[in-house]
Amino acid sequence: MAPINVHATAIRINQTGLMFAGPSGWGKSMLAFTCLTEARRLGLPAMLVADDQVFVEHRDGDIIAKRPDSIAGLIELRGTGIVSLECIPEAVMHFAILPASVSGPDRLPADDEQIEVAEGFALPVIRLLANTSVPLAILMAKAPEIGMECR
């Protein structure tokens, strides 16, 4: 099966792949960039896979995110412009990071929530508010393995 193009941003911290998905303008790129910056400050290996377009494919039971070569190492920081980052060509994805709700019935999402990021490609979900000041700390509270050296 050919890779599927998904509107998302994919990063890897240590060995944990995080795919930020959601509507245009939600802040996927800025949240991913902030997580990468926080991880590096903590001394954790952190790399961009792809921003805005991510090719996903199945390989040996894993969901693999791959970057298009035309945008390798580029990430758009809304209001600032496009910047270059160190990147890797692909990574296994472990979580989909989606917008959270501050109120209403979705304020406390289900712990076992999953989303199909593309047909046949489901990942466990972690919800995150776009304006959170320390997104990596919140992600690591929900999924401590993000900060661990080995998976």
Can you describe this structure in just a few lines?
This protein is mostly beta strands. It has 2 helices and 12 strands. The protein is globular.
Strand-helix topology:
Layout: E1 4-6, E2 8-13, E3 16-21, H1 28-41, E4 46-51, E5 54-59, E6 62-66, E7 74-77, E8 81-84, E9 90-93, E10 95-99, E11 114-118, E12 121-128, H2 135-142
Parallel strand pairs: 3-10, 10-12
Antiparallel strand pairs: 1-5, 2-3, 2-4, 5-6, 6-9, 7-8, 11-12
Summary keywords:
2 helices, mainly beta, six-stranded mixed β-sheet, 151 residues, four-stranded antiparallel β-sheet, globular
Distance between the termini: 27 Å
* Helix-strand category: mainly beta
Report Rg.
14 Å
The percentage of residues in β strands lies in 35-45%
Q: For the report, how would you describe the main beta sheet?
A: 6 strands, mixed
The helix content, as a percent range, equals 10-25%
Q: Calculate the mean pLDDT score and round it.
A: 90
Q: What's the shape?
A: globular
Per DSSP E runs of 2 or more residues, the count of β-strands stands at: 12
Unreliable stretches covering 5 or more consecutive residues = none
Element pattern in H and E: EEEHEEEEEEEEEH
Query: How many individual helices?
Result: 2
Order of neighbouring strands in the sheet with most strands: 4-2-3-10-12-11
